[in-house]
Design brief:
Largest sheet: 19 strands, mixed
CATH architecture of the largest domain: 3-Layer(bab) Sandwich
CATH class of the largest domain: Alpha Beta
Transmembrane segments: 79-97
Domain Protein FecR C-terminal: 314-379
Pfam families: FecR, FecR_C
Domain FecR protein: 178-274
Number of helices: 8
Distance between the termini: 36 Å
Keywords: Membrane, Transmembrane, Transmembrane helix
Helix content: 10-25%
Number of strands: 25
Radius of gyration: 24 Å
Length: 382
């Protein structure tokens, strides 16, 4: 297995960010030439020398992380396959490197992205109370941020908002609060009944300061992962786009209902949920995903992939460029501008520990595109 010295890892990192000097490039080339083919394991078919070279350095970059889950991995599903692959530990097939060192010109042909080093989603959110007043949580000190009737709202040091209800009253149940995350933000919330919600970027959740006596009802726009406290006497309902309703008693599930996505999806990890819209109704089991557009259908899915965002990763499968860019817009609070995009579909994992320029670098190598920063916008050149 490839185990490069620390200085080579550092140089590989500089190559990926486009900041490597000519002298450093020479050192990296010399190390590359000395590696035996059997030391390097990769997934691929029909790769060029440049693609193989790019893959090796991406894997080196991955080994700078503390564990294999934090590796950028982008692989094409077409015959020319990936230009940026998973770390060696995750690979089972192999390919031999060319016996001749690729030229420096070919190595550097992937033009570095202009500086756009934005970090991904962090704990950023605004809490809007029933009276319209807004609390910017990322600027607020830890401790109690609001009292509504007998309900106390606390902010913890871990970026979590906790509702601690006292004696429930009708008035409190009518006090609707809204938690909103911007692009580049995320937040955790514990509802008055003890249910937990992880709110993804560019999302909002409306909920009462205390639930009433008959049901627990919230309204979601965007994406959230729910762990619902069990209470058979009070069904939990999530109102989502297109007038649909998700009803549960106690379960773990993820809902993606962004307005700029054509589908609304509900993925079940534990328990049972029922999705209804007009005359459509569907109950799904753990491991299934309900997809709502003009119809309502259930599919078997990889649940870990669907909730990867909640664990700090963005994982995509057979995803087109436009879908990836929409996700990056929400993560990094940027806007992509393009006239056309590659037709390739990609699979991979991107850790949120990566800055935007690093992710764009991987997409340049993989997809044959270039990115140019123009103020807040990033132009895609195909």
């Amino acid at each position: 297995m490839l185990n490069p010295p620390e200085n080579i890892q550092t140089l590989a990192n500089k190559w990926l960010s486009g900041t490597i000097t000519q002298q450093e490039q020479k050192i990296l080339d010399e190390w590359y030439e000395q590696q035996l083919p059997e030391k390097l394991n990769w997934t691929s078919v029909d790769d060029t020398d440049e693609t193989i070279r790019a893959r090796m350095f991406i894997a080196l970059k991955g080994q700078l992380q503390f564990n294999a889950r934090k590796v950028i991995s982008i692989r094409q599903t077409r015959i020319w396959t990936i230009a940026a692959a998973c770390v060696v530990l995750l690979i089972i097939s192999s390919i031999y490197l060319s016996q001749h060192k690729p030229s420096q010109q070919r190595l550097m042909s992937a033009k570095p992205v202009e500086k756009a080093d934005k970090t991904a989603a962090g704990n950023k959110a605004v809490l809007t109370l029933a009276d319209g007043s807004a609390i910017i949580l990322d600027n607020s000190p830890n401790g109690t941020v609001s009292k509504q009737g007998s309900t106390v709202v606390d902010k913890t040091s871990k970026g979590q908002l906790i509702y601690r209800p006292g004696t429930t009253s009708v008035a409190q149940a009518e006090n609707i609060n809204t938690l909103t995350t911007p692009k580049g933000g995320q937040y955790q919330l514990q509802l008055p009944d003890g249910s937990k919600v992880w709110l993804n970027a560019a999302s909002s959740l409306k909920f009462p300061a205390a639930f009433g006596s008959s049901e627990r009802r919230v309204e979601l726009s965007g994406e959230a992962y729910f762990e619902i406290a069990k209470n058979a006497q009070k069904p939990f309902k999530v109102m989502i786009a297109q007038g649909a309703v998700i009803e549960v008693l106690g379960t773990h599930f993820n809902v993606m209902a962004y307005q700029n996505e054509k589908n609304v999806s509900t993925t079940l990890l534990e328990g049972s949920v029922k999705i209804t819209k007009s005359n459509l109704a569907l109950t799904i089991k753990p491991g299934q995903q309900a997809v709502l557009n003009n119809t309502l259908q259930a599919f078997q899915v990889d649940t870990e992939q669907e909730i990867a965002w909640q664990k700090g990763d963005f994982q995509f499968s057979n995803t087109d460029f436009a879908g990836i860019l929409r996700e990056l817009e929400r993560w990094y609070d940027v806007d992509f501008v393009y006239e056309d995009l590659p037709s390739k579909k990609l699979n991979g994992i991107v850790s949120r520990t990566y800055n935007l320029s690093q992710v764009l670098r991987m997409l340049e190598i993989t997809g044959g595109v270039q990115f140019k920063k123009e103020g807040r916008q990033i132009r895609v050149i195909n």
